Amino acid sequence: MATYKEIRGVNIQSLAADPTAVEGDVWYNATTSKLKIYASSGAWSTGGTMNLARGGLGGAGTQTAFLVFGGAAPPSNTRKDECETYDGSTWSEVNDLNASHGTGGGDCGTTQTAALVWGGHPGETVNTEKWDGTNWTEVNNLNTGRAASGGAGTTTAGLCIGGNGPGGTVLTVCEEYDGTNWAETGDLNTSSSYRQGIGSQTAAFGCGGYPSDTVTNIVEEYDGTSWTETTDFNTARRSGTSAGTTSNGLLIAGYAGSPIANVESWNGSSWTEIADVSTAVHAQAARSGTGTTGTAAISAGGSRPAYTAVTEEFSFSASVETLGVD
């Protein structure tokens, strides 16, 4: 087992007063004779209920200004074109997509007023649409039709990650969007569908997924040119969702033979299991940042296994805790 010094680079210090702490710091307060740690914690709570229960939907924005679009819903897993916005408490219907983007499409966008959706079922389409805060507009198509792709980035610098191609072929092919056109870029090392994408066009993770007949916990990192395998996360999954960046990321729930509730955070060097969502779910939409200084994330809709309209919101904080010593 690694020592504190090996992990943090210093021994536990004896100080006369509590310092300005950094998450993970441990020190001894000589004045109060107490051992202390600056620890982080997080919790999920129920937010407003969407108007339409669905799974496999796209999402963009933040916890208090969110957008969901498309997906699949009853009856018979019908592909949808409906869209809704969220103000932190209430969901409102807004203008529909031009074409239904069903389960397994890709998406990106960091704000409620600028989003991009591509591909999806039926037919592993190449269709792409852009949202301007009011309307959806059809824009230039993908080069390779697909469903179940991961997504990262923005509407002017987007990244499409793998997916299922025509005939169900599992792809390594990735594409970048520059605000006008799609261009093929470096391939994944491992073909996979239903990956969770995190980050930007030039600094992204492709997490987990479904390479063949089982789920995986593999993570690949993209530097704007090529993909490199990096630190695996703890619980293998596909069809979950994600938020954050390649230095502060979050993996939320997913599917591992059945829906799971597991949530993991990434701090730039390791994955850590943190507070689970209230109910196991997969194929939901999520966005918002994660980090060590306080964060707010959102998970909306999905399948549990029945389609749900439930929204869950994540709050994250750090505080000084006193450790008991026998």
Describe, in plain words, how this protein is organized in 3D.
The longest helix has 5 residues, at 4-8. This protein has 2 domains: 4-40 and 319-323, no CATH class; 43-315, Kelch-type beta propeller (Neuraminidase, 6 Propeller), CATH 2.120.10. The model has no long low-confidence stretch (mean pLDDT 90). It has 1 helix and 28 strands. The two termini are 22 Å apart. The strands form 7 sheets. The protein has a 6-stranded mixed sheet with strand order 1-2-3-28-27-26, with no helix packed on it. A 4-stranded antiparallel sheet has the order 4-5-8-9, with no helix packed on it. It has 326 residues and is mostly beta strands.
Features:
mainly beta, four-stranded antiparallel sheet, 1 helix, 28 strands
What is the overall shape?
globular
Rounded Rg: 20 Å
CATH domain topology of the largest domain? Neuraminidase
The secondary-structure element order is HEEEEEEEEEEEEEEEEEEEEEEEEEEEE
Could you name the CATH homologous superfamily of the largest domain?
A: Kelch-type beta propeller
Low-pLDDT runs of 5+ residues are none
Number of helices: 1
Number of self-contained structural domains:
2
The secondary-structure class comes to mainly beta
- Read across the widest sheet, the strand sequence of neighbours is 1-2-3-28-27-26
How helical, in percent, are the residues? under 10%
Mean pLDDT over all positions: 90
N- to C-terminal distance: 22 Å
CATH class of the largest domain: Mainly Beta
What is the oligomeric state here? Answer: single chain
* CATH architecture level-2 label of the largest domain: 6 Propeller
Major sheet characteristics: 6 strands, mixed
Number of strand segments: 28
